[in-house]
Specification:
- The protein is of the alpha+beta class.
- The protein folds into 2 domains: 58 residues; 116 residues, Nuclear Transport Factor 2, Chain: A (Roll), CATH 3.10.450.50.
- Helix content is 61%, strand content 21%.
- A hairpin with a 2-residue loop joins strand 1 and strand 2.
- Helix 2 runs antiparallel to helix 3 and helix 4 crosses helix 5.
- The longest helix has 55 residues.
- The protein is elongated and about 80 Å long.
Length: 180
């Protein structure tokens, strides 16, 4: 009889002990699952921050810069035009066939004339408005790029091809030549 009492005590002591071990194990499993979830959320958060950082730090491609420039010329948006063009280098590129002394004499006037061609009632701007302009492929080589541009006269159908020349300065692409 006293054995039954002892076995009853064993059962009463064992059950709570078993319950404590079971729930503690359950807590460990739940804790491990929570820990895994926390690590997964942290990983996803860090990946999204990295993705945002990489995309925000990129400048538009040379092709996009040329398209934006052409749109700015069509709208006569002076601020945008200035943002996309290096006028000094553009002028040098246009006058490369002249000697250095001839170039130095003509550069200031030519630069002003070149800028005004793309603005307001400028010759280039008015000419581009009569044409369908297609910006094609880009070829990037290091910090320089060529973007193929096609001009199609809407009245005559005459098609002209040219390459816009760009270079990278402070992570931004700048145009230093395009047909005017």
């Amino acid at each position: 009889m006293w054995w039954s009492f002892i076995s009853e005590i064993k059962i009463h002591l064992t059950l709570p002990l078993f319950a404590i071990l079971f729930f503690q194990n359950k807590r460990t499993v739940i804790s491990n699952e929570r820990s895994k979830m926390k690590r997964m959320y942290l990983f996803l958060f860090l990946m999204s921050i990295l993705f945002i950082f990489l995309n925000c730090s990129r400048s538009p491609s040379p092709r996009v810069v040329v398209m934006d420039f052409i749109e700015a010329v069509n709208k006569a948006d002076t601020a945008s035009i200035q943002k996309y063009v290096d006028w000094n280098r553009f002028t040098q590129e246009k006058l490369q066939d002249l000697t250095e002394t001839e170039r130095q004499k003509i550069i200031p006037q030519y630069k002003d004339q070149l800028e005004s061609n793309f603005l307001g009632n400028g010759e280039t701007r008015l000419d581009w408005q009569t044409k369908m302009i297609v910006v094609n492929d880009e070829k990037i080589t290091g910090d320089s790029a060529l973007v193929e541009v096609t001009f199609v006269d809407q009245k005559t159908g005459l098609t002209e091809y040219t390459n816009a020349k760009l270079y990278k300065k402070n992570k931004n692409w700048l145009i230093y030549y395009i047909k005017d």
